[in-house]
Amino acid sequence: MTLFLSEGDVRALLSPNDAVQAVEGCFQRMAAGAVHHAPRRRLELEEGRLADMAASDLQLGYAGVKTYAAFREGTAFVVALFSAERPELVALLEADWLGRLRTGAASAVAAKHLARDGAATLGVIGCGTQAETQVRCIRAALPALERVVAYCRTERHLQEFCENVGAEQGDSHRDAAAQDVVVTITTSRDPVLRGEWLQPGALVCAAGANNGASRELDNVVLERASFVCCDWLPQARTESADLIEPVETGVLDWLEVHELREVVSGELPGRQSADDIVVFKSNGIAAWDVAIAAAALERARERGVGKEL
């Protein structure tokens, strides 16, 4: 039987810590060669877009596809989770919150492995629907965080966001950029983070732009970075304008861009010193959706949650 999990079910089943553990395990299995990806595709609709992305995780025992229809008034997300061992549709999950969790969890895994020792502050540029899980997941990965500073251009949104997650309101982008870990999670087409604003030792998690045309980071961020990594290089080469344009202008070379799985597995150290500036460019990959969907399914079975179809 196929189990259906609603948005409410997923929210109730998964904590930020659950999400971080699921995504960290995904990176470990990626490093072991057990995960296979299909990159995101986007199709034009009359007034929106339909996207899909897929992955199989042979060690986990599942394969899945996430698809979503995006329109001006909102987006509908769903993950179909299949057995990797037999012809079975195991679960269907509404996946708006699931997607926000996995994106926040990926930044949290990067923070766990790449933030400097003693990192105590987090800056967030952007206050939209994805920003909340960035804060909650990074807090789960770095429990010693003492301060969160947020900034976005809409005063009302900034105030609401800060009240929701317990953050301080920054007066400008610079305030958020001056922290130990800096997250950009915006829909801006032009850079919102300038390298000159970063403090020595900062970790930058750029998680907003993934359409190949929008940038959140200026070239100085990449010039100052001692280590640059992404979630999956083949997709970064088509979706990460934050990396594509610096490569095209000679600021960066693709040979200098690593994958976070290499750090999580211990293959690469990532950070060499406390003063290194490190960049993680996150686009979002289906393997994270499969991993978090599998975690939600496991808990749903334990607790008798969901509807059989």
Structure characterization notes:
Helix 2 crosses helix 4. Helix 4 links the parallel strand 7 and strand 8. The chain has helices at residues 7-13, 16-31, 96-114, 131-141, 155-165, 173-177, 219-224, 233-239, 241-248, 260-264, 286-303; strands spanning 3-5, 35-44, 48-57, 62-71, 74-83, 89-94, 121-125, 147-151, 168-169, 181-184, 203-206, 225-230, 257-259, 277-281, 307-308. The chain is built from eleven helices and 15 strands. With 309 residues, it is of the alpha/beta class. The protein is globular, with a radius of gyration of 18 Å. Helix content is 37%, strand content 28%. Strands 9-8-7-10-11-14-12-13 form an eight-stranded parallel beta sheet. Strands 2-3-4-5-6-1-15 form a seven-stranded mixed beta sheet.
Quick structural summary:
With 309 residues, the chain is α/β, with parallel strands linked by helices. The chain has helices at residues 7-13, 16-31, 96-114, 131-141, 155-165, 173-177, 219-224, 233-239, 241-248, 260-264, 286-303, and strands spanning 3-5, 35-44, 48-57, 62-71, 74-83, 89-94, 121-125, 147-151, 168-169, 181-184, 203-206, 225-230, 257-259, 277-281, 307-308. The protein has an 8-stranded parallel beta sheet. A 7-stranded mixed beta sheet has the order 2-3-4-5-6-1-15.
